Amino acid sequence: MISKLQKPLDSGFNSKTHADEITKDIDLTGKIAIVTGGYSGIGIETTRALINSGAEVIITAKRSEVAIKNLEGIVSKENVIEMDLSDLNSVKNFTDGYKENFNRLDLLINNAGIMACPETRIGNNWESQIAINHFGHFMLTKELMDMMADNDGARFVSLSSSAHSLTGMLWDDIHFLNSPYDKWMAYGQSKTASSLIAIEFDKLMKDKGVRGFSVHPGGIMTPLQRHLQNEEMVTLGWMKEDGSLSDLAKNFFKTTSQGAATTLWCATSSSLNNIGGVFCEDCDIAKIKSEVDESMQRYFGVADWAVDIDEASKLWELTEKTLKS
What we know:
The chain has 325 residues and is an alpha/beta fold. The protein contains ten helices and ten strands. An eight-stranded mixed beta sheet has the order 3-2-1-4-7-8-9-10, sandwiched between helices. Helix 2 packs across helix 9 (256-268), helix 4 packs parallel to helix 5 (128-149) and helix 5 (128-149) packs parallel to helix 6.
């Protein structure tokens, strides 16, 4: 079952809208936001725009020294807090500390992630992309939900990707224990999970005035591509053999500021005050893929499985059981 709200609003923005265009009339004074990975790529632009709008922003960082350097002049180093999404104890330490030191949470933006990396096992023999992109963020979100529930108007934004279209949840073999590891299928599954967590969050929290959104930020060249060789990006159609952007990438890829815009729209737009549990792209609610031109379905629109309410509930329950075991 898919929400009837999963349809564009004609927001007035588009794929080339910049971060500061979204937030130019937004006042976030007195608000507190957490941005995971808010010190690299589109995360920096998300952080910068929130701070420029008056919010206090807490950055979680696996490499706090890198984050402090990257955010110099933007965020106070006291607001950069170490947290490793691959280590659930680290996540719990962060959430416990946050609850001790802060009295509210207005925006939770799950921005960090890894992409198409070599097979790695962490935790209880978990595949690393689902473990970091989903399990780590799930624990962070679950631990902070009560703080958000006390705060009518709070919002949760989970960053997905067009790669969600590669696969729904691989329920029979989530961790590639019985089938050959495929880094792109693993990434696609983790990004489907990143969407589904927002769908279920919204269902659980909307009666408290708190809403959840998933976001495809668009194609952006960021450190997320660090595991990809140039020849692979040529095959994907992103680059030319000489290392320059392909014609496709020139047409559709965004700057980091443009890439942060949809996240910021979901986090702040008044047009979403009574809406949630939807997948967004290009600063609007996305179309279902069947409504997108067939030639563009790989890059735009949302697959049914990433916004299916029953799939979202199933994943939430399975993740809770997994993290308790």
